[in-house]
Structures are given as structure tokens and as C-alpha cells.
Write a structure and sequence with these properties.
Number of domains: 1
Helix content: over 70%
CATH architecture: Alpha Horseshoe
Order of helices and strands: HHHHHHHH
CATH superfamily: Tetratricopeptide repeat domain
Structural class: mainly alpha
Largest sheet: none
Number of helices: 8
Distance between the termini: 38 Å
Shape: globular
Radius of gyration: 15 Å
């Protein structure tokens, strides 16, 4: 594992997050992902992909202000990138903003992401009973 790869650390954080006995390790992995990603932003402050991922990592760490600042900046820099809209949906759902999360999911799907991605992501478990969510992710 490349210790400087922010995505590797974020993926490890995501994996650990869903294992109850590893939640503490998830936070540690997200912090390392943030550290690595912030280093990349010192080279290119307009890297929308890094900003979007860091928004997600900050959300998992409970830092609401940084999470929204980063993810909204990412979307502003690259408004047609559906993966960044998905990052915004993840941040919104993390902080209980259902309508905003659904708006972002809809934009991500309209932008080209498959509904399966959102349907299968456990981060959206809190939306499963929402009729709008069900309609959005039922696919073609």
C-alpha cells in the first residue's frame, strides 16, 4: 500500500467503517487520507477529484464545515462530473440532509452514473425506505 495515496486510505476507511469492531481504525484511515489529499492540494488547489474525496473523508470524521466546503468547491470546479455529485450526496446523507442528498443522487444519475451504484452503497441505507430514493435507483 502506498502510504501517500489518499484514495487507498479513504478506501480502507470505507471498508473499516462497516465493520463494527474496526470503526476506530476507520477514523484513523480517513485522517491519513485527509493528510495525503491535503498534500496534493498544496500542489494543485483546483483538483476537483481530490476536493470531492476529502469532502467525503471530512464528513466521515464529523467535520461538517470542511466536508461541505470541499465537496461544494469540487462540484463548482467541475459541475458536470457525476462522481463529484455523488460525493456531495454522500456528504449530505452523512449529515442527515435527505432532500439535498436525493437532489445530488438525481444529478449524479442524470450525469451518467448508474443507479446501481447508489442503490448498492450502504452509505445510503438511511434512504432505503424513501419513495423518491426508490424511484431514482430502480434504473431503466
Amino acid at each position: 500500500m502506498d502510504p501517500s495515496d489518499y484514495m487507498t486510505w479513504g478506501n480502507l476507511g470505507d471498508a473499516d467503517y462497516w465493520v463494527p469492531s474496526r470503526k476506530a481504525q476507520a477514523a484513523q484511515a480517513y485522517r491519513k487520507g485527509v493528510e495525503s489529499g491535503e498534500a496534493l492540494l498544496k500542489v494543485n488547489t483546483r483538483n476537483a477529484v481530490v476536493l470531492g474525496q476529502l469532502g467525503w473523508y471530512y464528513a466521515r470524521l464529523g467535520n461538517r464545515s470542511k466536508a461541505f466546503a470541499y465537496v461544494n468547491r469540487a462540484v463548482a470546479l467541475s459541475p458536470k462530473d457525476p462522481s463529484l455529485e455523488l460525493n456531495r450526496a454522500l456528504v449530505n446523507v452523512q449529515f442527515g440532509r435527505t432532500d439535498a442528498a436525493l437532489d445530488s443522487i438525481e444529478k449524479a444519475i442524470r450525469g451518467g452514473l448508474t443507479a446501481k451504484m447508489e442503490r448498492d452503497d450502504p452509505s445510503f441505507n438511511s434512504l432505503r425506505s424513501n419513495l423518491r430514493f426508490q424511484k431514482l435507483v430502480q434504473g431503466p
